[in-house]
Write a structure and sequence with these properties.
The protein is α+β, with helices and mostly antiparallel strands. It is 29% helix and 24% strand. The strands form four sheets. It has a five-stranded mixed β-sheet, sandwiched between helices. Strands 11-10-13-14 form a four-stranded antiparallel β-sheet. The radius of gyration is 25 Å and the shape is globular.
């Protein structure tokens, strides 16, 4: 049976038209889907003296991933948005986090090609301190000494998420895996990245056998950047609330970009940690920059060894600052608990603070367990001091 020419033309037109309508419908559906999500605003140079520096570190045995610059900007739009929204939610006045920009007004990402293969930086066996210190040294050699410039390093040397604050020069080195630049994890546009947070398509996880939903990998990878930078800004881990970014709240980062859940702050910084960031020079815009002397910690110790079965312990604080003390946080590691925040206080410009305080743990202490208490304290001008005290939980 032969089909007449005019009928062939009709059928072709029908199928082409149907395909076009399907494509248009899919495109409109995608636009509608994007419209339903919250899209972070573009980055802009805030002109601050204290900025975050981005470095992409690639050892000699690794290759540069394509589009890392575009993806860095996508990732940092999310990070900047998280800090801006959470600082506002916690009542802190700041323009937000600033980054380095080039002469054309584009986000600057320093490509640092390492002098050695990956194993030189990781050590054998793996040594996280070596990884941080060796990469930091070569990054400084290439980009300049990073005073006032904490470095966020995307590393191809090893899969790790760690941070090393350097308070005396308002700096530090935070390191995350360069695997974040994989197409499966990070998109080239902010709209696509937000969609990634909701996309459950299985993707291959680096170093793992079983696939993982894209939304889980994208949320965690993007969210951990805010977490590691938080350490640079004086924050410590805080397991009191599973929504906390300084716990693992960032695993649900996508909820911040869904209008139906965003208003409830499903992912957040605690009030104490927001105070810490606000006091740092990366957010504080009313400090006296001539003051470069950190608070003096004269005493930070347990009044007596903590006892097993109890939830309370007494800690003695004795500190001072000529210009005035700011916020402090204290957390506990060990004693049957992991990174339990036990204090966050705003000293509101007091010149001295000399007091023995009763603090409450999240759970009962376990007899015989070693326990560490770590404190970070800012003065009103963004100078940070740190201290720790160790003990063993008594029977």
């Amino acid at each position: 049976m032969k089909i007449k020419p005019y009928l062939c033309t009709f059928l072709c037109a029908f199928f082409v038209g149907t395909f076009f309508l399907f494509f248009l419908s899919a495109a409109n559906a995608n636009q509608e889907s994007t419209k339903k999500k919250i899209i972070p605003p573009p980055l802009k140079d805030l002109g601050k003296a204290y900025k975050v520096r981005l470095v992409y570190f690639v050892p000699t045995d690794k290759k540069v991933k394509p589009n890392y610059r575009e993806k860095s900007e996508v990732l940092m739009r999310i990070v900047a948005d998280i800090y801006r929204r959470e600082m506002k939610a916690n009542g802190q006045k700041t323009r937000g986090l600033d980054f380095e920009f080039d002469k054309d007004g584009k986000l600057k990402v320093h490509l640092v090609k390492g002098k050695h293969p990956s194993v030189f930086y990781t050590g054998e066996p793996f040594d996280v301190d070596r990884l941080l210190q060796t990469q930091q040294q070569e990054a400084w050699e290439k980009t300049g000494y990073s005073r006032n410039r904490p470095t966020l390093c995307f590393s191809e040397a090893g899969a790790v998420a760690e941070a090393m604050p350097i308070p005396h020069i308002y700096s530090g080195f935070a390191c995350v895996s360069g695997d974040i630049f994989r197409d499966e994890v990070t998109a080239n546009t902010i709209e696509e990245q937000v969609e990634n947070f909701f996309d459950k398509t299985p993707i291959k996880k680096v170093g793992g056998r079983d696939p993982i939903p894209r939304n889980k990998e994208s949320q965690t990878s993007n969210g951990v950047l805010s977490h590691e930078l938080g350490h640079i800004f004086g924050m410590l881990h805080d397991t009191r609330d599973p929504r906390n970014i300084m716990m693992r709240g960032y695993d649900n980062l996508g909820q911040m970009y869904d209008p139906q859940t965003a208003a409830k702050r499903p992912v957040r910084f605690s009030r104490g940690h927001a105070r810490m960031a606000a006091a740092s020079r990366f957010f504080n815009e009313s400090m006296n920059e001539q003051d470069t002397t950190p608070p003096e910690i004269h005493e930070f110790k347990l009044a007596s060894p903590p006892k097993g079965g109890q939830k309370k312990m007494q800690i003695t604080f004795n500190m001072s600052d000529d210009e005035g003390l700011g916020p402090l946080v204290v957390f506990q590691r060990g004693g049957g608990q992991i990174d339990a925040m036990v204090a966050d206080v705003d000293l509101k410009g007091k010149k001295t603070y000399n007091k023995t305080v009763t603090l409450k743990c999240a759970r009962n202490l376990l007899a015989g367990q070693p326990v560490i208490y770590i404190m970070n304290v800012f003065d009103k001008n963004g100078n940070l001091s740190q201290a720790q005290t160790r003990s063993v939980v008594a029977p």
